[in-house]
Amino acid sequence: MTCRELIDSITTRLTGLYDAREARNIARLFVCARTGITLSALLTDPEAELRTEGPENPGGAENPGVQEERESPKDLEEPEGREERQEQEGPEAWKGRPEVQGLSWGEGLFGRLGPDVERLAAGEPLQYVLGESEFYGRRFVVRPGVLIPRPETEELVDRIVHTEGGRPCRILDVGTGSGCIAVSLALELPGAEVYAADISDVALETAAENCRRLGARVTLRRADALNDLAARFPERFDVIVSNPPYVPAGDRAVMHPNVRDYEPSLALFVPDDDPLRFYRAIARAGRRMLRPGGRLWFEIYERAAAGMTALLEAEGYTQTEIYRDLFDKERMTCSRLEK
Questions:
Q1: What is the C-alpha to C-alpha distance for residues 221 and 211, in angstroms, rounded to an integer?
Q2: Which whole number is the average pLDDT over 94-111?
Q3: What pTM was estimated for this model as a whole?
Q4: CATH number for the domain harbouring residue 149
């Protein structure tokens, strides 16, 4: 079987849930991840033959993205620091499907692809199937129950790196999820002391795993952004950053199923009648937690800029700036707390 034939088969399974172009892009990324072929090689030689037997180790070469060890909740205060997960199913899940009839999948690598492609065809995000997502030049472990990092959040990190770089500072990431913001800032700003908070055990365990495998020192604590944030973090900070839930619940119906049905609602949605509730609570806690002149950074809903400006002013913040993302949407805010 050639690379093109494999990608065509997977694209056929995904078309309908995704448009043809997006389905093919997902198929390419999946094949690259599962076979070890680079995207450039895939594009320059699509007729290359793929071997039909897989390695004895189902995941191939060891992948540093996922480790066996898991951090227990009681060990989350100061974490220290892939084998690809494969289903133990054969090719039976694909037998009889018209798009793969006549193709020999064998019992090795190809036999293991079927179950994962069926997960993709059911709408599960590619990042969950692969168990990882790229963010700011690094690969982060992600799993169900943890929000998948977005490109616009990379822009938020990049702005903080370029604004806060060059000086020692203490940073708090509220609602850390996979830890992508906190870990990236800890690694990009070696003079920073980074803390992170989340209410979800799955998120804290995933963030701790990413700290270990990427070598980032981040202090993780369980905290509720709506209630006990200041109590859980008595330290004073130079920077507080958050990408909290901000999608109005009324938008759920129009979201793509791979987001709506798979990513954690806890990290996505807010009530229609109080969409800024997390921003208000964090900004209010920030008045106690930020040092004089400290900055408060938010990723925001694309239609919330005016409301956010008014909220931040009401909470005593000044010099609020609104930044647009690469898609020209108002997506980030930065404010100062003058005391």
A1: 13
A2: 47
A3: 0.83
A4: 3.40.50.150
